[in-house]
Amino acid sequence: MRFLLFEQLIPINYLASFQEVHKAVFESDEFKFEKLQHKQNLLAILAMDGSRVAGFKLGYEHPDGVFYSWLGGVHPNYQKQGIAATCMEMQHSWCKQQGYTRVRTYGRNEKKAMLIVNIKAGFDIVKTFVDDKGRQKIVFEKEL
């Protein structure tokens, strides 16, 4: 497995494979890349098995100056191999190099595996809230 780090844009030759992972992980429609427009300090990490994306991690600077670890996932065929943890470690290392002192992420109770990854990685639960879709969200933060 090799890991690629991209600042601001994911190259077009990875987009179709990225979409396969997104659909498999989130059981939803295609990822809308326009959501990435105007994100400050966007960072994308791709876990690659040959030319196939096996997992990814996306994040960007939140308006309050904290780095927001926004979205990530590992294709079911590649889970339980430490890919999510490696992507997270790479993200945090990059954040430190950029001068960030804290990382924030949100989780949902039904995504237990990600909650466990966050806790094992040293994140603290700082609050909860209900989003505009009526889902309970857990806010995690980690000092770098």
UniProtKB/TrEMBL annotation:
Superkingdom, taxonomy of origin: Bacteria
Domain N-acetyltransferase: 4-144
Annotated PROSITE patterns: GNAT (PS51186)
InterPro entries xref list: Acyl_CoA_acyltransferase, GNAT_dom
Entry protein name: GNAT family N-acetyltransferase
Species: Solibacillus palustris
Lineage: Bacteria, Bacillati, Bacillota, Bacilli, Bacillales
